[in-house]
């Protein structure tokens, strides 16, 4: 029996067959959580979650996402793991993804202007320049880990531009977000609560210095805009700014990285589709959408039922945990004909990789821009791209993540 709630499952690959079985047999089905181990100050702690309703169809995920009055992000937060204490829950609620209205709408209004297509478009030239330089470097190197050298690098460079940070500090962003997102993976946090705490402390100390610098000497970067922005007549506090900053660091970094590495793997494994794209670069925009559907870098987010309700015919009680599986919704045959086929020209493509409803991803335009520019820069070299060793996947129930993808450019091949 595949355990959807066990991080170890995903180290072997996304359990698509299990999702398909559930979509067909029981679109909103109960999942027991396994016992997970955490290492805290007081020694090893075993923890078992409450169990949850897995929402696996496109219709189910859309319905719950668009009804925040019933399916709350703030009640217990938007992450699968239950907050351990009330204090943990209160802390989590300072993060945009873990808010409901009116707090959510208020904070989102302050940040969203920085992420509209108009605000993001001016970044295109610098994103393309970063992509060209990275591609030239890996092609020259011949054989590389595509995660470290390509997929991780582009979002870090773009984030450094966006947040007005020196490029030399991008390694810090990389380490912090690995420790927080890879909490269940022994290569990163490995369930060590201390690593988790230390990471927050270090990241926030760095951020506070950044804010102080921008208040003294504002530029035209996002941080300068955020420290000066006013909502309802007041500026954001340092604590609010820290949470927002960390969310951007993680959301803008891990997700795009996993989209790129998953896309490279998909293109290597589907040479017919790769050749179709190389022959017709006008397919890049639809290819980006299809790769978003195919990879679905964030596999799920959580909601908590605020009241007794019914979803896809299933009775859900007030307080129940509900997990919205975008990764499954994106393979729903009711919406995507032949869903297990990669079709880079697929249209329409109403995938849910960025979620839907009031929490729809703020960084969607930026992520699309980065993926599109990188794909365009890579096009002439794609026919030569080969695996140079087995891919390694992250132990995570949250991110569909490849952590190592050895590749080589087989120049003799084209
Ligand atoms: C391929 C890349 C990305 C994917 C797949 C992705 C996915 C998602 C998803 C599924 C949500 C919905 C959360 C929910 O419903 O609870 C979300 C929210 C969010 N994303 Fe992204 N994201 C990506 C890139 C980015 C980037 C580049 C940024 C910023 C630089 C970003 C910033 C955010 C923020 C701030 C939210 C919270 C919005 C809210 O709660 O109102 N994301 N993202």
TrEMBL record:
Species whose genome carries this gene: Nonomuraea purpurea
SUPFAM superfamilies named among the record's database cross-references: Cytochrome P450 (SSF48264)
Name of the protein in question: Cytochrome P450
Entry annotated with the keyword Oxidoreductase: yes
Sequence similarity: Belongs to the cytochrome P450 family.
Keywords: Heme, Iron, Metal-binding, Monooxygenase, Oxidoreductase
Matches recorded under InterPro entries: Cyt_P450 (IPR001128), Cyt_P450_B (IPR002397), Cyt_P450_CS (IPR017972), Cyt_P450_sf (IPR036396)
Organism domain of life: Bacteria
């Amino acid at each position: 029996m595949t355990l959807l709630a066990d991080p170890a499952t995903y180290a072997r690959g996304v359990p698509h067959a299990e999702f398909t079985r559930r979509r067909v047999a029981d679109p909103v089905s109960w999942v027991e959580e396994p016992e997970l181990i955490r290492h805290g100050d007081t020694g090893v702690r075993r923890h078992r979650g409450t169990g949850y309703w897995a929402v696996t169809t496109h219709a189910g995920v859309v319905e719950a996402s668009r009804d925040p009055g019933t399916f709350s992000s703030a009640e217990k937060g938007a992450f699968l793991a239950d907050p351990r204490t009330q204090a943990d829950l209160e802390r989590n609620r300072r993060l945009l993804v873990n808010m409901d209205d009116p707090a959510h709408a208020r904070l989102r209004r302050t940040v969203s202007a920085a992420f509209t297509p108009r605000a993001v478009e001016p970044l295109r030239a610098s994103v393309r320049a970063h992509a060209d330089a990275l591609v030239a470097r890996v092609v020259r190197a011949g054989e590389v880990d595509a995660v470290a050298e390509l997929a991780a690098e582009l979002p870090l460079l773009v984030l450094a531009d966006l947040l007005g940070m020196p490029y030399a500090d991008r390694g810090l962003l990389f380490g912090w977000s690995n420790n927080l997102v890879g909490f269940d993976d022994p290569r990163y946090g490995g369930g060590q609560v201390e690593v988790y705490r230390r990471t927050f402390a270090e990241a926030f100390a760095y951020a506070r210095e950044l804010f102080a610098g921008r208040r003294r000497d504002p530029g035209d970067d996002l941080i300068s805009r955020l420290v000066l922005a006013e909502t309802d007549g007041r500026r954001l506090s340092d604590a609010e700014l820290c949470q927002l900053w960390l969310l951007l660091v993680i959301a803008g970094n891990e997700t795009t990285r996993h989209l790129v590495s998953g896309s490279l793997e998909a293109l290597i494994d589907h040479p017919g589709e790769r050749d179709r794209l190389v022959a017709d670069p006008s397919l890049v925009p639809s290819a980006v959408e299809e790769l978003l559907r195919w990879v679905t870098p964030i596999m799920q987010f959580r909601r908590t039922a605020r009241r007794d309700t019914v979803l896809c015919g299933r009775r859900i009680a007030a307080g129940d945990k509900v997990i919205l599986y975008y990764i499954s919704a994106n393979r729903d045959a009711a919406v995507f004909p032949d869903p297990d086929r990669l079709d880079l020209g697929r249209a329409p493509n109403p995938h849910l990789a960025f979620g839907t409803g009031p929490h729809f991803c703020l960084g969607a335009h930026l992520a699309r821009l980065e993926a599109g520019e990188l794909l365009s820069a890579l096009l002439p070299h794609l026919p030569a791209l080969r695996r140079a060793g087995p891919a390694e996947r992250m132990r995570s129930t949250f991110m569909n993540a490849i952590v190592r993808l050895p590749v080589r450019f087989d120049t003799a091949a084209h």
